[in-house]
Amino acid sequence: xxxxxxxxxxxxxxxxxxxxxxxxxxxxxxxxxxxxxxxxxxxxxxxxxxxxxxxxxxxxxxxxxxxxxxxxxxxxxxxxxxxxxxxxxxxxxxxxxxxxxxxxxxxxxxxxxxxxxxxxxxxxxxxxxxxxxxxxxxxxxxxxxxxxxxxxxxxxxxxxxxxxxxxxxxxxxxxxxxxxxxxxxxxxxxxxxxxxxxxxxxxxx
Length: 205
Description:
Ribosomal Protein S5, domain 2; elongated
C-alpha cells in the first residue's frame, strides 16, 4: 500500500475449456472435443451435391438403415397381401402369425410383408415392431426358402421383442415353416396346372 491507496486485485483467471473426452465419447469412438476433423470422401461428395440431391440421399440412407430390406425383398401392393392372406399356409407362434405363399420360381430371395394392427400398440409401437421384424427377417439366412412370400402378422406380445428374440421364436417353429413352404409350393403347382382336357366338353343331354 502506497500513500493509502490499494493495489487493484487481479481478477480470476478465465477457466480453460476441458477438452478431455468423456467416457461416453471414448466408448463411441468420438474425436476429442476441439479437435480438428478431416471430412471423409462421403462428406466431400455430399457437399458437392445440389441441396435437393443431398436431401434425397439423406432420406435414402435413413430408409436403408431403418428398413434393412431392399424393395425387391418386400411385399408392397395390396393385391399381393390379399393373395398371400387368401392362399398362404399358416404357421402360428406365440407372438406372430406367419403366412407363406409360393410365387413364380425364379430363384429370387424370399419377400416379406408385415401387418401390425392397433392391438399391437400405438403408431410408434407398431413402427418399432415392423423395424424389428424386418431386421429379424434380414438376419434369418436360409430359414425362409427362395421364391416364397411371407406375411408376418404381429400379435400384441411382439411389442416387447428384439430381433434376436424374434429369430429364436421363428427358429423354434422351423420344422412347421418348412412343412408350410412345401405345402405352399404344391398349392402353387396345382393352381398353375391346366385343367384336364374334355372336362368341360361333355355333351349336353
